[in-house]
Automatic annotation (TrEMBL):
Protein name: Copper-translocating P-type ATPase
Entry's family note: Belongs to the cation transport ATPase (P-type) (TC 3.A.3) family. Type IB subfamily.
Coiled-coil stretches noted in the UniProt entry, renumbered to this chain: none
Cellular location(s): Cell membrane
Higher taxonomy: Bacteria, Pseudomonadati, Thermodesulfobacteriota, Candidatus Desulfofervidia, Candidatus Desulfofervidales
Highest taxon in the source lineage: Bacteria
Organism of derivation: Desulfofervidus auxilii
Domain HMA intervals: 3-69
């Protein structure tokens, strides 16, 4: 069963940042869908919690160079 979260992200300035984060998250096993919204500074993520944890999502965002600011 998939779950959906909205993750608040810091450090995104332009639309290329959006693509960078979307691509970083899509590489993780268990990520079903990702949409990053620049003006909202949020990633809307559908994922399979049996395959990927919020902590993995946090790490992927941080490894890409942005800040994980929590779930909304
Ligand atoms: Mo745009 Mo984002 O020049 O790190 S890609 S600001």
């Amino acid at each position: 069963i998939n779950e959906k979260v909205a993750v608040k992200i810091g450090g995104m300035t332009c639309v290329m940042c959006v693509k960078t984060i979307e691509n970083a998250l899509k590489k993780l096993d268990g990520i079903v869908d990702v949409n990053v919204n620049l003006s909202a500074e949020k990633a809307y993520i559908t994922y399979n919690p049996k395959l990927v944890a919020i902590d993995d999502i946090k790490k992927a965002i941080e490894d890409a160079g942005y800040q994980y600011l929590g779930i909304e």
